[in-house]
Amino acid sequence: MINRRTVLGGALAAAGLPLLAPGIPAGGEAHAAEALPPAGPHRAQDPVPPAFTTAMPVPPVLRPLSSTGDVDVYKLTIRRSTAEILPGTATDVLTYDGHFPGPVIQARSGRRVLVRHHNDLDMPVTVHLHGASVPPPYDGNPMDVFAPGTSRTYVYTNRQPHASLWFHDHAHHMEAEHVYRGLTGTYLLTDELEQSLPLPKGQYDVPVTIRDARFDEQGQLAYTMSDRNRTTILANGKPTPYFQVAARKYRFRLLNASNLRLFALGLSDGTPLTQIGSDGGLLERPVAVPALVLSPGERADVVIDFSRHPVGTRLVLTNSGPGRPDQVGKVLRFDVVRKADDPSSIPKVLRTLPPATALPKAAVTRHIALSMDEDGRPDPRGFINGRLYDPDRIDTTVAFGSSEIWNVTNTNRRIAHNFHLHLVQFRVLERGGLPAGPTEAGLKDTVRVAPGETVKLHVTFDAFRGDYVYHCHMLDHSAMGMMATFRVR
User: Fold this and answer.
1) pLDDT bucket at 47, cuts 50 / 70 / 90
2) Second label for 379, Cα 20 to 30 Å away, from 11, 80, 87, 133?
């Protein structure tokens, strides 16, 4: 019988991903498309409230300290704070200016943004603007940290087109825990093309950061490397919340900020999501998707039209990705509470990108192998082309202005990975030897790679010279050493 579950299952299979991690029987627990060693002793249930009892907040938009000429200046303090994630409980978190998750910076192509970060923690940090094309001093290299009590100014020239970006800590060996404890924020870059389209705007354009977490009995975030028990789903920092909407179209900027978990998002009534954008901005055309698959670090912009639902409707954003449905199957509920005028629409053509056949000719073809120990050892290591990350080693040298083909292969048998390149947006040409699907036809900076799978990427290095990194963006894996350095010269 064809039902919503089979439709979503088919979408995941088409994406090269199973409903459960390989090797785990139906009904068992799987974590983030990653088959892990057997779980430890039984843990008490997270002290979380029932689903849909907490309202989802919208992260605040920062106002610049100053706006002069062609530059906007911001100041943020990286500091410890507490957040009421669970009702009535003060949870210790790491934050940008006390916000969990972090605030929103709105930027415009061609206009510079300066962000001065002050480190009020007792450990070094760095800030990476994920998906941005920036010179090396402002990229947030994992070793380019600044010490407690000091400040660092990052200059973003915003020479690239519109994109839904995000920023996060990238200090090596600490990046996974720092991001898990809250050091993430949203950076929305727009341009004249995007602004000219009649898409939902203003209060109807909503950033939504989704992730998983685990809490101890005191309501504190519990962090363990490769933890398979992160089964509390947060949306904008609240556990399985509700969000009140008008009966009209909304644009949601979805970010998977998990360390490991893969999401496959759909609507509880079976209506497809309308995807309009990915990591590097708008797709060429809107795509109807029954299950939107996002690995850690990936973004997708979707439009949901609530006008087809009467006031009083409750519609759930579900997750059919790996894990037990009773634990991770619900992300967010939309409550239609009022009617509203809606001048917005979704154009049939959103932007123009060159077809794969018209991309610049590749001068070099490279092969990148992602792997990690999967033999059950307590301290697994991550590798790229068989080597642990060494910040003193240049693994790949590319010519400035050149285009290359990168074939990225996950050589593990059970463990999923994904792949993130700093500095550039790339095009996904093939997945498993087949042409990339429409949801991956736009500009990307992060791409999932299932066990045994190869993705073929077209990359052009024409922005800046210098040293940058590429790595698995399942951050627990990059903290284990699954990272390498490339030099553009």
Assistant:
1) confident
2) 80
